[in-house]
Design a protein that fits this description.
The protein has 7 helices and 12 strands. It has 253 residues and is of the alpha/beta class.
Length: 253
Amino acid sequence: MAEPLLAVDNLQVSVEDKPILKGLTLTVNAGEVHALMGPNGSGKSTLSFCLMGHPKYTITGGSIRYKGEDLAGLTADERAQRGVFLAFQYPTAIPGVTIMNFLRAALRGVRGQDMPVKEFRLTLKAQLKALGIPEAFMNRYVNDGFSGGEKKRLEILQMAVLNPALALLDETDSGLDIDALKTVAAGINALRTPERGMLLITHYQRLLNYTKPDIVHVMIDGRIAKTGGAELALELESQGYQGYRPAVAPAAA
């Protein structure tokens, strides 16, 4: 049996001594698309930042293994070099830096060396065509004055150019209208491959109308409360998260 692309086992994470993840276990294999759903405060974004190596998040128990390697001792850039990618919920604007230069610098950081200019332009042109993004987009400054949909399209373009083995998408559908949502979903679908695993973090089922996951997880209070197929997202849409929350004991008389 092939080794999992990502294996999270009994992960416990704190932020400023406050426990956020409380024994989370999750496995993503190459070629799979997983959706992680849950209410605000359940720890979804904490998981994505922890997987990417944000220093604010302290692992207090459990393990994260990527392609069999323990990620705990690796910095964010070392994880990126190994093929882990995070698309942010709130991408940052970088006025004065063109998308073309930004993508080339990002690719250099991941590869450890420059890609020849001709090869880079051919790679970029192919990805722009595949994702339906005009070439003029490359001359704009990174996220400067962008709409929500444009910011998320740039995140998908980064993923396409960097070609990660594991893609973490943190609420990529946040703040998008229906047209932008369809565009971003089409980009995600275009990047599904047998070699790449994806973890889509979202509050809502609507993204999953256009990007059908193989596996859906419900996350409540820092743990996985239930795992199922794509039909689980429809169940959540109709019934909400209340049935998955831990029962609260009645107050003593």
